[in-house]
């Protein structure tokens, strides 16, 4: 690492060492070191620009298509689930989970549907796009946990009413879950000492707004991303690193 990056890591670690409450906002980039590249699509997990059907992936993964052709939506949901299956939390996920045991209050707001924050041990996780591991029936109260779709018939059917099951993810064209938004608002009302943006392109308002709120409120802000975003010139500290490298560097400094 160059001297400038080391100085930024030192400054961020010093502030983090004094913090009591931290908000971590994470996107697909935090899972890159777990073998999940920064994709497009639901939860940022789809890479191909073209599909077999000649439609945009955003259309196939939409509520409108799911309503009339759930088999097509499930085809690509299954591809995403297969990419997530077997992935393990990396150093960045583990660092955030470890900090939760040391700080008075830690909140993770993630765009990811891979479940790796929970797998790493983080408890206070707001999955703003839902996750692929929980299936539910839109017509009845049936729910199940599905850690793998391998070998299952697709689309999966509800064993109670035979309707098509769906994962608890936000499809294109759907509103964000009210419960997740309410949890974020409640956490923001309590306030934070620091706000991190890690591995997200920061294009959605519900991702950028907490950071901009922190900037306006004088709360320390940090962006960790190899690529600059619209927030890079606004935050107090910008680290042009991958999530695992940056968080490992911070944890080493905190351990001194």
Automatic annotation (TrEMBL):
Zn(2+) binds at residues 137, 140, 158, 161. Its EC number is 2.3.1.286. The keyword Hydrolase applies. SUPFAM superfamilies: DHS-like NAD/FAD-binding domain. The active site is at 129 (proton acceptor). It holds the Pfam family SIR2. Residues 2-256 form the Deacetylase sirtuin-type domain. Keywords: Hydrolase, Metal-binding, NAD, Transferase, Zinc. The keyword Transferase applies. It comes from the Bacteria. GO terms for molecular function: histone deacetylase activity, NAD-dependent; hydrolase activity; metal ion binding; NAD+ binding. It is an enzyme of class 2 (transferase). NCBIfam families: PRK00481.1-3. This is protein acetyllysine N-acetyltransferase.
């Amino acid at each position: 690492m160059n001297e400038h990056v080391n100085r930024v890591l030192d400054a961020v670690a010093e502030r983090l060492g004094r913090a009591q409450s931290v908000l971590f906002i994470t996107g697909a980039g935090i899972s890159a070191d777990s073998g999940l590249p920064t994709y497009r699509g639901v939860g940022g997990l789809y890479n191909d620009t073209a599909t077999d059907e000649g439609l945009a992936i955003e259309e196939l993964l939409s509520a409108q298509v799911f309503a009339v052709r759930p088999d097509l939506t499930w085809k690509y949901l299954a591809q995403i689930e297969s990419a997530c299956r077997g992935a393990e939390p990396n150093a960045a996920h583990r660092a955030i989970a470890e900090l939760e045991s040391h700080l008075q209050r830690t909140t993770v707001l993630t765009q990811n549907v891979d479940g790796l924050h929970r797998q790493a041990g983080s408890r206070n996780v707001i999955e703003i796009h839902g996750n692929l591991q929980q299936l539910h029936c839109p017509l009845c109260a049936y729910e199940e946990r599905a850690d793998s779709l391998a070998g299952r018939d697709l689309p999966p059917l509800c064993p109670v009413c035979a309707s098509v099951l769906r994962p608890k993810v936000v499809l294109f064209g759907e509103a964000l879950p009210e419960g997740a938004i309410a949890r974020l608002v409640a956490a923001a009302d309590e306030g934070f000492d620091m706000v991190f943006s890690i591995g997200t392109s920061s294009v959605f308002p519900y991702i950028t707004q907490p950071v901009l709120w922190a900037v306006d409120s004088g709360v320390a802000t940090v962006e960790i991303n190899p690529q600059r975003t619209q927030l890079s010139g606004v935050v107090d500290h910008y680290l042009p690193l991958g999530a695992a490298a940056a968080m490992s560097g911070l944890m080493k400094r905190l351990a001194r």
